[in-house]
Amino acid sequence: MLDIIVVGGGPAGLSAAITARQRDLDVAVITNDSTKSGLYKAPEVGNYPGLPGISGQELLQRLTDHASAVGAKLFIGRVSTILPSGNTFGVGYGSDILTSSSVILATGISQTSSFPGEAELLGRGVSYCATCDGMLYRGKRVCVICLTPEAFDEAKYLESIGCDVVRIENRRIEINGDKQVTSVTVDGEEIICEGVFILRHTIAPNSLLTNLKTDKGHIRVSLSGETSISGVFAAGDCTGAPYQIAKAVGQGQVAVLSASDYIRKR
């Protein structure tokens, strides 16, 4: 089991990983493909101290190389769920799960709006992970909302375990049901189903973790990076403005110091 899992491989997450290794903590970073990030696409970063004119791509590469060199474990994948269990956390990504004593959320800004009915029916037919929840729907009809290329592989997986799969790409969608999903309306046409798998590049943090308090889409944190959930910390743009690399790097360090104290006291 790891000491810390960092969700997100931007400046905040990589700074956290580097600091964790300096404190001899066993840490892993799970991140999406960095080439899809806004920072990676920036031709020039003009305000990061000491590195004038560096490109976003080069800055990310340097941070990644530094974290790897000091022994942080790096995994590419979309985190789909975080499950607290006693004093540990299980973090699911792809078809794998890592466990740790604490979690640092460094997910950046979640710019994806939810579908009508999604939040209300999360855990009651709405899921973000086919490999986690697919077996619950064997022999049943499910809709897979495919918003990433990888989503089609997950749809095939659901078919392989006996689900009746309806694939839906990015269209006008509404998820229906009272206490449980009963159907999905797509461009005005209703499709009867018992489950909906929404497969995006990223998932809003409060959809990953039940009872995580947010404010206008940002994770609420104390000055020491603590969230509303014991053992979970947050850093970077996901905690709110100003959206600056220097701030993210500093918050990543602070979050690790708090996580280290949490682990030691526990």
Q: Would you kindly provide a brief summary of this structure?
A:
The protein is built from six helices and 16 strands.
Class by alpha and beta content: alpha/beta
CATH homologous superfamily descriptor of the largest domain: FAD/NAD(P)-binding domain
What does the oligomeric state look like here?
A: single chain
Cα distance, first to last residue?
Answer: 15 Å
Task: Characterize the structure shown.
With 266 residues, this protein is of the alpha/beta class. The chain folds into two domains: 2-111 and 203-265, 3-Layer(bba) Sandwich (FAD/NAD(P)-binding domain); 126-199, FAD/NAD(P)-binding domain (3-Layer(bba) Sandwich), CATH 3.50.50.60. 24% of the residues lie in helices and 29% in strands. The chain has six helices and 16 strands. The protein has helices spanning 11-22, 56-69, 130-133, 151-160, 205-208, 245-265, and strands at 2-7, 27-31, 73-76, 79-85, 88-93, 96-105, 126-127, 141-146, 164-168, 173-177, 181-186, 189-192, 195-199, 214-215, 218-219, 232-234. The strands form four sheets. Strands 1, 2, 3, 4, 5, 6 and 16 form a seven-stranded mixed beta sheet that branches. It has a four-stranded parallel beta sheet with strand order 7-13-8-9, with helices on one face. Strands 10-11-12 form a three-stranded antiparallel beta sheet, with no helix packed on it. Helix 1 (11-22) runs parallel beside helix 2 (56-69) and helix 1 (11-22) crosses helix 6. It starts with a strand and ends with a helix. The model has no long low-confidence stretch (mean pLDDT 92).
